[in-house]
Automatic annotation (TrEMBL):
Residues 14-82, 137-185 form the DUF447 domain. SUPFAM superfamilies: FMN-binding split barrel (SSF50475). It comes from Thermococcus gorgonarius. This is DUF447 domain-containing protein. Pfam families: DUF447_C, DUF447_N. Signal peptide: none annotated. It comes from the Archaea.
Length: 207
């Protein structure tokens, strides 16, 4: 067993950075043994893995970075990317690299039906790096939940107005919590602004 994997409890979902040939995006990752599992609902990273099944998964405690990458916003500080053979990763951030085995599967939930790329990264090695000594913060948790709900909201407004209304309410609740807990990253306000625009559609006002 690769020692760094021991820090990931089996079965628990972790937000990690997936680095493919030309893209960096956050994904929810579950460890089982020496394999890391994640899903991609389309997008650039999914297409790159299908063409080139090698990737890196990296660990960060920077909620702002995770949220910005999830929403395709530039990070506060630029990321330095390095390439080693088939693999590419963000310099200075610890993690894992390996070959990705993938399958396309049908998926259905409240947002409707779609095809999802289910991925299993067999860890071949570790990426050296260190984390900024940033303590755990409930404000960071609220920010992450806002971003997750916002990505779902963008789909729900066109497919499930009742779900969209619940997501709008939850984003507002988490934004208020984020502020009460001292959260100050401007990305929180940006999510709230964009969510408010989506939540003001005539269809949602009727719910």
């Amino acid at each position: 067993m690769i020692p760094l994997l021991d820090f990931l409890s089996e079965g628990q979902v972790y937000e990690m950075l997936l680095v493919t040939q030309s893209n960096v995006t956050p994904v929810g990752v579950i460890r089982r043994g020496g394999t890391l599992f994640f899903k991609l609902f389309g997008g650039k990273s999914a297409e790159e893995i299908k063409r080139h099944p090698y990737a890196s998964l990296q660990i960060t405690n920077d909620a702002g970075l995770i949220v910005r990458l999830a929403l395709n916003m530039p990070p506060k500080e630029g990321l330095t990317l390095v390439r080693r053979g088939e693999f590419r990763w963000v310099e200075g951030i610890p993690g894992f690299y390996g070959r990705v085995n993938w399958k396309l599967k049908d998926h259905e939930d409240e947002l409707g039906r779609t095809r999802v790329l289910t991925c299993a990264l067999d860890v071949l090695g570790i990426i050296e790096g260190s984390l900024v000594p940033r303590p755990f913060s409930r404000a960071d948790c609220a920010l992450i939940e806002m971003a997750v709900d916002f990505t779902r909201l963008k789909v729900a407004v066109n497919s499930n107005v009742n779900l969209a209304k619940r997501l709008c309410d939850r984003i507002c609740e988490n934004y208020n919590l984020y502020q009460r807990l001292g959260g100050s990253d401007p990305v929180g306000e940006k999510i709230m602004e964009k969510a408010s625009e989506l939540c003001l559609t005539k269809e949602l006002q009727k719910v």
